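Example record

The entry below shows one chain as it appears in the dataset: sequence first, then C-alpha cells.
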Amino acid sequence: VQLVESGGGSVQAGGSLTLSCTMSVAFEEASVGWFRQAPGKERQGVSIISIRDGETYYTNSVKDRFTISIDNAKKMVNLQMHNLQPDDTAVYYCAIDVDYRQHIPLIQSFYYGMDYWGAGTLVTVSS
C-alpha cells in the first residue's frame, strides 16, 4: 500500500489549506489517519476516519477547525484545515490501518494501529 500526501504549503495565521492523501488501493474497511510532527517535537495524531462508516475522531487542538473526509472512489482522504495557527506548523503525514474493523474502537486504531505511512507534506503557518 502506498500513500501520497499533497496540498501542503505556506499560509498566514487564520488561513486555510486542504491536504489530500491518495491511496494506491481502495479499501472497503480500514481506517485512515492524519498525523503531524513539528520540529523538535514528537509525532501527534490529528484525526482519523473509518472508511466503512465514516466515523471520525479529532484531537482536541483541531476540533472545530479541521475536517476529515473520504472519497473512496478516488481513493483519497482529505483534511480541510481552517483558522490555521503557527502551532499547526508541522510535517503532516497520512497513514492507514488496514486491519481496522468496525468492532474495534477507532481511537485504538488512531494510537496503535497504523501500518503504512506516506512521506509527509509540510505545512507552514506564519503569524
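Notes for this example: Helices lie at 106-112. Residues 106-112 form the longest helix (7 residues).
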